[in-house]
Amino acid sequence: MRADIAINHNIPQPDSYDRVIINEPDLREIWEYNRATFFYQKILGYNRNIRIDLMRKEPKALKFVAEVKELQDEIVYDKLMRPRAVYQFFPARSDGNDTIVENGNNKVTFEFQRQTKEPYLCLSDYLKPEGDNMGFMVGTAGQEILDHAKELENEGLYKKAFIFQGIALATAEALTEMVHHKMRQAWGLKEGEWDKSRGPPRNYRGERFSFGYPACPEMAKQDLLWELLHPEDIGVHLTESHMMEPEASVSCIVYHHPDAKYFNL
């Protein structure tokens, strides 16, 4: 069974199939990819719409944002964070519910689940049965900032430690946005200019998915991603339960299909 998804689209070719490691990219560039509502409201717990409050020059919002930016400056000047990322494109194809990835002379097969009711989507539907390709990536804010936050906790500086932890988590997410942007550029996908004051691009071709989320809930499949990318080379490891360490890390599988979208099983 295959969902009714068009497969007559053009297949973009990446500029290289080599593995790319990004060592300690500029933090200021990464933070341009932060989504303000996600960062301040979801992660740091600001309980109002941060954008509206900033437009209205609400003292509470202005003070909170200034405090966070001061700590970001401290991270930059004292080199408290060492973000890293790795990504790579691979030839790939679909076979029913399976995504078959060519890794040199080896093949790695991801067995994805399919919806049990219409439209019967499965991640493998976003690849053609022959001659397609896809990408994988892992990004991390690193262990250093989390260790520093723990030291602050031990000193009783709980609020500062909490904000540092939040910045680390947001940095991993923003780094993922940045790498995904670079991967779309490597595919040659055309995108318009984006307003950096409003966060990363929102309208683009393709989609990325992370293990543990609805479309691919099985964390054990992280092992296959590690077989392909070897993220241990950037300091990211899997626990026995297939979770990532450091905690402020994100892994993704990336499709270019124009109809790719999130869905629940």
What does this protein structure show overall?
The chain is α+β, with helices and mostly antiparallel strands. It has a single domain (20-255), classed as NADH Oxidase, CATH 3.40.109. It contains seven helices and nine strands. It has helices at residues 27-31, 36-43, 50-55, 59-77, 144-154, 158-187, 222-229, and strands spanning 20-23, 84-95, 98-103, 106-111, 132-140, 207-209, 237-238, 244-245, 249-255. The strands form two sheets. Strands 1, 2, 3, 4, 5, 6 and 9 form a seven-stranded antiparallel β-sheet that branches. Strand 7 and strand 8 (244-245) form a beta hairpin. Helix 5 (144-154) runs antiparallel to helix 6 (158-187). The protein is globular. The model has no long low-confidence stretch (mean pLDDT 94).
**Overall 3D geometry?**
globular
Order of helices and strands: EHHHHEEEEHHEHEEE
Mean pLDDT: 94
Give the class-level CATH name: Alpha Beta
Give short descriptive properties of this protein.
single chain; alpha+beta; NADH Oxidase; 7 helices; 33% helix; 19% strand; globular
